[in-house]
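USER:
Class, as today's exercise, take the chain set out below, and explain how the chain folds.
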Amino acid sequence: MSALGNIISKELKELLTPSAIIPIIVIALIFGSIGSSMESIQEGLEEKPALGYIDEDNSKLSSVITSYLNKNTEVIFNSTDISEKSNGLEQVKEKEGIALIVIKQNFSKNILNDSRGDIELYWIMKGGGIFDTVSSEVLEGVLYSTNQEISKILIEENTTVNSSIALWPANRIDTTYFKDREIGLSPGAISSMLASQSTFMPIIIMMLIIFAGQMIISSMALEKENKTLETLLTLPVKRTSIVTGKIAASAFIGLLFAIIYMIGMNNYFQGFSGFGQMNLSDYGLTLSNQDFILVGVSLFITLICALALCMLLGTFAKNFKSAQTLVFPVTMLAMIPMFITMFFDFDTLPLIFKGLLFAIPFAHPMIATRALIFDNYLLVVSGIIYVLIFAIVTISIVVWVFKTDRLLTGSTRRKKIFGFRRMKFNK
């Protein structure tokens, strides 16, 4: 029994290492934060949206809508004069409301004459993330309920209105103000169109970064384990040439991945060029050839940065097994911006979170597509410059490490570094 206990104790000590425990804890924290996010969304669905309305018709059927809005929303502006529309929009924007609803004149008369009554909705959309559209989804539900209430009145009063009109009496005309643009769609439709950038693109980019990173770290670990790296470093070859060769190979891999990604993304966007009966190009929600080039450059430089960072981490790998845990920091740096860009729009984040997200180099290709759709070239270009500087610094550190004896002895011993004859940093 003691022998069995010793074996179990030995295996537990080997398996329950910090490198094995920390990733599990971090993943649990990530899923916990996702659960908190879902709870926040649920709380947002229970809050009353703030809005304004103009009842130009001022009739029995229009009063059904206004009374329902007064009961189920926070009304911050109301009027019966259409000339107050500009003032109403300004008040809604100032008080962070989400929409101004205009019930057009002859709303009731048109319905009773077998044609739908017009309602104009002027939406104020702050961002394209999941959190940013919660209030508009609540208002969509309220508007759907007002249609049902009017339908009940028409049916109960035995009017001669056509059944199709009675079941859906209101005709909506949507206009959304989003990032200095006026788009003839509802926030829900715009959010659905942007879902490809806020959901699928970050996931694809994350997978590319993790795959490339794991490949480089595993390669470094296998070279150490098979002693081929030691043999290479003892050959009469300049170590700068070794580093240049590895970086060049990494650059080729990064370029190959970027080209494959760009071809796939281009085909993906072409497949979604028609959204139902709508063409995205009609609303300016597509990328130009110049935009695709910028996204490709951003992705290529980010992949080079990831490969250089993984090469640096690979120098700490003792064998192939230990290399698997070294992929974790890269995985976290890819997963964190992926989740943030899925739930939030970069423009609506608090300043401190904008800074944190901008500091993560892997985040930039994830936010580039949406930024370019809305002509935010400054964010994309500044991101490319930042990631390029990050990559150059990382590559410089890798070059320095390869010039030391760390890969052979586990210490950074050099005959001359920065003007000193000899210095050694213990492991």
